Amino acid sequence: MRKHPVVQLLLIGAIGTAIGLPIALAIPWFPAQAATQAHRIDTLYHVLLIVSVPIFVGVLSVVLYSVWKFRMKPGEEGKDGPPIHGNTRLEVVWTAAPAILIVALCTYAYTVLHANEVTKPGERTVNVIGEQFAWYFTYPSSPGKSVVTQQLYLPKGQPVVFKIHSRDVIHEFFVPAFRLQLAAVPGITTTLRATPDRLGVYSVVCNQLCGNGHATMRATVHVLTPAAFQAWLAKQPVQPSPGYSFSSAGGGAPAPAPAPAPSGKAGNGSATAAAGKAIFTGSGGCGACHTLADAGTTGAVGPNLGIRLVPDAKKRGLPLAAFINESITKPNAFIAPGYPAGVMPQTFGQTLTATQIQSLVAYLASVTK
Questions:
Q1: Strand arrangement of the beta sheet that strand 218-224 belongs to
Q2: How many domains does the chain have?
Q3: What CA–CA distance (Å, rounded) separates 308 from 199?
Q4: Are residues 180 and 110 in the same domain?
């Protein structure tokens, strides 16, 4: 006895779903979960897959069946299709059922996102500053003072609230292992929460095209045990906070940057090449865009400083130290051949103290050739 076409389609859909759903759920769509928020997001995604695969298989089965069953045959080119009256009951069902399904899924998604954004007791604040093309992370320690680093360190199990700001254009702070991202918008502070729950090292990327060096705007998040995190934090130098205020209400506007200290005196002590190297590889962010063999950096947005500073200083007609100072504080005064203008941040003359700049000059002058 021949089965009715609807029964055939239901069987095909059931078989397709039985094959497709395990495959869809088995595919590792995301990296390892490293925050409690990631577990909720992954569960939401799996629910969406469980709902979507049967619908996809069912629609595809009907389309392919219709293409085969009702295809035009030779000699029927001039004929019209048979007049078929609509089925009101079926139309009501296929309108109401998707509407109910969408409302249910949107409600579930809202509960997940709301749970991820709930304020937790004992939250630690970490300020995130994005600029072309680097991330900076600051840990407030006292009024006007912070630990500043380009590597994100977090304690396992402690809730963290990120206060996110941009110094120039729109960036997107994205930690794939946390399944969280949020825009860094100039002029405002956006807020994101996470609770790391797995030790390890994970990526931080900019997920918004922000300029020529967008692909290099990456950092690393280190999730440590609480004791290891406190030990790391205690070893970090305390610096003047960057020139942005981060209000708890999430509307922090740019605040005046700290003025450079008089030559030879600053909160970081006297200028030395060793201090310059620490700034180059750390809070200064220079290594994200420049290659320098001595520092072990491989950035390709700007020139290779190990081999270009001396010849470029000669082209500019300046002593090496003066040229390096100008390149830091007025980067558009001389553009190395083959590189575009306007890529290097114009704010280092304000965000770095005079001693920090002198330290960078001393370091770069000592390792170039």
A1: 152-155, 218-224, 200-206, 171-175, 180-184
A2: 3
A3: 40
A4: no
Question: How far out from the chain centre does Cα 299 lie?
Answer: 18
Give this prediction's pTM: 0.65
Tokens matching residue 254: 């740019």
Whether residue 355 lies inside any domain: the answer is yes
Last residue of a domain, one of 181, 216, 240: 240
In a shared domain, residues 165 and 202: yes
Question: For residue 257, is it within any domain?
Answer: no
* pLDDT tens figures, 168-183: 889 999 999 999 999 9
Which of 206, 136, 143 is CA-nearest to residue 352?
136
Structural domain boundaries, residue 45: 5-66+92-117
Confidence of residue 152 (pLDDT cuts 50, 70, 90): very high
Q: Is the pLDDT of residue 112 over 90?
A: yes
Residue 195 near residue 35 (C-beta atoms within 8 A): yes
Distance CA 343, CA 175 (A): 24
How far CA 2 is from CA of 5, 65, 129, 369, in Å, comes to: 9, 16, 68, 85
Q: Quote the tokens at residue 171.
A: 């960036």
Residue 131 to residue 184: CA distance in whole angstroms: 9
Q: Dump pLDDT digits (tens) for 72-108.
A: 788 777 777 777 777 888 889 889 999 999 999 999 9
Say whether 202 sits in a helix, a strand or coil. strand
CATH label of the domain that carries residue 305: 1.10.760.10
Between 87 and 117, whose confidence is greater? 117
Phi, psi of 142 (to 5 degrees): -160, 165
pLDDT, residue 225, reads 95
CB atoms within 10 A of CB 31: 14
Measured distance CA(156)–CA(328) in Å, rounded: 37
Per-residue pLDDT reduced to its tens digit, 253-276: 333 333 333 333 334 457 788 888
CA dist 123 and 179 (Å) reads: 19
